[in-house]
Amino acid sequence: METKGNFKYTSELIIKFLKNDLSDAEMITFEQWLAADQKNRDLLDSFKNTTDIQQDINYIDAMDTDMAWANVSRLTENKPVKTVNWNKIVRYSAAAMVLIVAGLGFYKFSNTTKQVKNEMAAVQDIMPGGKKAVLQLADGSTINLSDANLTLNAPNGKAALGARNGTLAFSTKRKLNTTEGYNKLSTPRAGEYKMILPDGTKVWLNASSSLRFATTFNQTERRVELTGEAYFEVKHNKKLPFRVYFNQTEVEVLGTHFNISSFGDKSKTTLLEGSVKITNAGKQQMLVPGEEATIGSGALDIHQTDTYKSIAWKEGAFYFKDDLIPDVMNQIFRWYDVEVVYKGTPDLKRYSGNIRRQATLNQVLEMLNAVSGKKFELKGRTVIVDFNP
After folding, report:
1. Are residues 325 and 306 both part of a single domain?
2. CA angle, corner 155, sides to 154 and 156, nearest 5?
3. Do the beta carbons of residue 246 and residue 268 sit within 8 Å?
4. pLDDT tens digits for 21-79?
5. In angstroms, rounded to a whole number, what is the distance separating the alpha carbons of residues 182 and 164?
6. Displacement of CA 233 from its chain's centroid (Å)
7. Which one, of 377, 293, 372, lies nearest residue 340 by Cα?
8. Which of 97, 140, 272, 322 has the highest CB neighbour number within 10 Å of its CB?
């Protein structure tokens, strides 16, 4: 097995090459590596022909490769593998070679006589979620927005709202109708959707979530009610603060970027830009960028956080960092619309990993299996997690 230093350095050169960021000295070393084996050139060509390489590079930049290399070493030491057959690499993303270094399980080792047994082998798979949502209007009518392109007009015949390519946009000037009440956008499991509110505020709604707001929104107040998870980019308006209500909590802002996750009795608010005031149980706290407020069992806690962890879903990624398996699976079951069953007692070990949300469920489970050493098995629409494989 190639040493960590050499293998990791080669991977770093590949990333720099793809970013057009190699120094003259590094370019000489890189060209020597290419000339050493035709397989190296073939591997590079496959990366260059992939359209989503930049997104994969961004994910790699966020990885803890030192920690992940330890996972690779641990996994390979436990398997009687003599050689690495690069032709057998399972490329779940464009930067598979670097992901191998990261130890996230995006690989298969084999020798010339016997392929390593894949414990996650399955005859079925589940595709990832997509742009799915239902809009309930104030008059009680509902519109299925899943993969829909539509326009609804105001009484004067001009467009009041439209849905295109997974985005619902309300007009800033025209109301759909005069009915007083509330509009509500809801996403099912395995669904997500983007909405532009009448004031220009952008909201990304995660799976199994909903956002409710009055038809008078942006007239006397800007107030929304959230269940589930959403990322907000609030349009600045000093005269009308933007308020989000969720789980007996209020967040008030003028114009800022933040994420709220509120499932069950646990919620967290993560601030990326600007400032927010959070109120819970009569207590008020201000957040600054890089801070997160968590609420659970009636207690409000504020701490520094890795903000990317909270918004990775909006960027199209699963990004786990020092997470318990049940916390990881909470994201999985909502995005793939599956049930989760545990065998044995969940341990208190924490794991880190990273994969695109457009991966199939089996690809995600294989990554989790490689990172954690647990067994993840898909049966129908149920994932069985075995803590004592």
Report:
1. no
2. 90
3. no
4. 888 788 888 888 888 877 777 777 766 544 445 545 544 444 444 444 444 444 444 44
5. 22
6. 17
7. 377
8. 97
Q: Running DSSP on this structure, what letter comes out for residue 120? A: T
Contact assessment for residue 98 and residue 15, using Cβ atoms and an 8 Å cutoff: yes
Query: Domain containing 214 — which CATH number?
Result: 2.60.120.1440
What's residue 177's pLDDT? Answer: 64
pLDDT one-digit tens code per residue, 305-357 = 999 999 999 999 999 999 999 999 999 999 999 999 999 988 889 999 889 99
Distance CA 259, CA 313 (A): 11
CA distance 377 to 295: 33
How far apart are the C-alpha atoms of 244 and 253, rounded to whole Å?
9
Q: Which domain holds residue 39?
A: 4-102
170/222 same-domain check: yes
Provide the sign of the torsion angle of the four alpha carbons 321, 327, 333, 339, taken in this order. Answer: positive
CA gap 201, 181 in Å, rounded: 20
Candidates 162, 124, 127, 170; CA nearest to 145 is 162
**What integer best gives the mean pLDDT of the chain?**
79
